[in-house]
């Protein structure tokens, strides 16, 4: 019976480790682009959930294996090499499990974040060394000897208990959240949305910190976000502050070259710009709080068989459970002068359009009645573009936004700019959005290496694409440092708790 138990533990552990490694490498490929070279070997879709359940399975199996070994002590005849490899495996699996638990709870100190990734690589080495031992000893009979269990000796009760423990722990970890206390203020208090936290109400509000990681261009990919929240019963105000050594307002500038105008870029062709882009900040809201951005993150080059592949091989956001997730997208160039955040949502997959280069899956903008910004080129090409409009003579061409009424249609005869001239690629058609897309007022200011961002929205709107702000609404935040999609992220949702 002891051999049957060991065989079950061994087999289930192999399965759990395999799925954990493959899903973990897929998640790591979001900020380790060299892993995209093996993208065809990695799973696609809701990989975060697969990684969580395989990690929990390995944790439960390892705990029972420790109990099993302690209660069934035997004298082994292993070689010195085999013992060393076995203890190496114990250390690596323990390190991987401990760092994974702390990472899932957002408790892993930032300097130790690489530990989880490198322990996974060490686990690959352990599997190679460990399997080599059995291959030498047992040859072609290794799989039969190690994994075969006679049905009459199969420990069904133990297997059932282990699966039950995995399910219970998975449910508990899925529902684990942070809590953000929303302080109450009087409806008579005037809160100015100007990017300053100089109102006394902000000084008295509860301060909450969340560590976000894996963003491009941040120091070690890390940005700690400080959050405060206030509510007057009708609206909720948020204050976000995070470190960013550089204020990035250089958004895909147009550069005059000998052959004409060109978009200055480093990844934009693949929709993964990481150099010439504005700073941004995103807030996602949901009525549920599940892992993997509430189940909206689908990783891989083509996670949906019925939809086009993406250009960067990193994945899509979509909601396939019939629920809407609200998404506020503040942009330092395109929306900050409007004193708005772009009110977006994550919903079901949309139908691809013919000749559309970038398919966005379920990531969509709320409707608008008027107002917009557009890119200042007629047709995009990696090699050369033609601007839509050129600045009037009294317009400062160094400004990151070109106003529509401060410019005129492009004519080659008026294009007398010298080689090396830079123009804005962001063209304002009006001062701001109107309609659902303008539900979130926002203003950000950068000073001494920090962004401070104020946002406000009504607790309830009339839009079908908005989530009501109330107790138990869950929130996720992400910072972007001159990157298009390579944002920071955290694991646990932040649940709002309003003062009575």
TrEMBL record:
Keyword Electron transport: yes
Record keyword Metal-binding present: yes
Keywords: Electron transport, Heme, Iron, Membrane, Metal-binding, Transmembrane, Transmembrane helix, Transport
Molecular function GO labels: heme binding; metal ion binding
Species, as recorded: Pseudoalteromonas caenipelagi
This protein's name: Cytochrome c-552/DMSO reductase-like haem-binding domain-containing protein
Alphabetized Pfam families for the sequence: EB_dh
Segments traversing the membrane: 48-67, 87-105, 117-136, 156-173
Coiled-coil annotated residue ranges, if any: none
């Amino acid at each position: 019976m002891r051999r049957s138990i060991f065989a079950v533990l061994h087999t289930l552990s192999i399965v759990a480790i395999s799925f954990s490694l493959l899903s973990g490498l897929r998640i790591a490929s979001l900020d380790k682009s060299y892993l995209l070279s093996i993208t065809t070997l990695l799973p696609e879709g809701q990989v975060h959930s697969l990684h969580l359940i395989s990690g929990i399975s390995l944790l439960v199996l390892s705990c029972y294996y420790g109990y099993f070994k302690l209660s069934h002590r035997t004298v082994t005849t292993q070689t010195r090499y085999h013992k060393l490899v076995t203890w190496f495996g114990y250390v690596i699996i323990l390190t991987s499990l401990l760092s994974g638990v702390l990472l899932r709870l957002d408790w892993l100190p930032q300097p130790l974040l690489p530990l989880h990734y490198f322990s996974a690589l060490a686990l690959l080495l352990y599997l190679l060394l460990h399997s080599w031992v059995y291959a030498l000893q047992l040859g072609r009979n290794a799989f039969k000897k190690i994994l075969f269990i006679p049905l009459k000796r199969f420990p069904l009760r133990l297997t059932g208990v282990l699966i039950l423990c995995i399910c219970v722990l998975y449910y508990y970890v899925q529902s684990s959240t942070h809590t953000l206390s929303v302080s109450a203020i009087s409806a008579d208090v005037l809160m100015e949305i100007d990017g300053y936290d100089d109102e006394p109400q902000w000084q008295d509000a509860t301060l909450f910190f969340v560590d976000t990681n894996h963003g491009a261009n941040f120091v070690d990919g890390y940005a700690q976000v400080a959050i405060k929240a206030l509510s007057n019963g009708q609206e909720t105000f948020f204050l976000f502050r995070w470190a960013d050594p550089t204020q990035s307002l250089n958004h895909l500038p147009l550069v005059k070259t000998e052959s004409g105008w060109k978009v200055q870029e480093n990844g934009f062709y693949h929709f993964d710009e990481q150099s010439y882009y504005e700073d941004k900040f995103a807030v996602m809201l949901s009525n549920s709080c599940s892992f993997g951005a509430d189940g909206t993150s689908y990783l891989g080059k083509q996670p949906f068989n019925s939809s086009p592949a993406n250009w960067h091989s990193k994945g899509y956001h979509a909601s396939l459970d019939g629920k809407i997730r609200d998404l506020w997208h503040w942009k330092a160039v395109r929306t900050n002068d409007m004193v708005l955040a772009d009110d977006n949502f994550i919903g079901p997959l949309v139908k691809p359009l013919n000749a559309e280069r970038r398919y966005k899956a379920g990531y969509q903008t709320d409707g608008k009645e008027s107002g917009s910004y557009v890119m200042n080129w007629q047709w995009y090409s990696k090699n050369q573009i033609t601007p839509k409009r050129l600045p009037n003579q009294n317009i400062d061409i160094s400004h990151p936004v070109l106003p529509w009424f401060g410019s005129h249609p492009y004519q080659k005869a008026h294009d007398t700019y010298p080689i090396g001239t830079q123009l804005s690629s962001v063209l304002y058609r009006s001062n701001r959005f109107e309609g659902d897309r303008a539900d979130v007022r926002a203003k950000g200011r950068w000073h001494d290496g920090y962004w401070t961002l104020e946002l406000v929205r009504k607790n309830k709107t009339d839009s079908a694409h908005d989530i009501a702000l109330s107790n138990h609404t869950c929130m996720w935040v992400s910072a972007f440092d001159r990157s298009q999609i390579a944002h920071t992220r955290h694991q646990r949702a932040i649940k709002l708790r309003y003062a009575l």
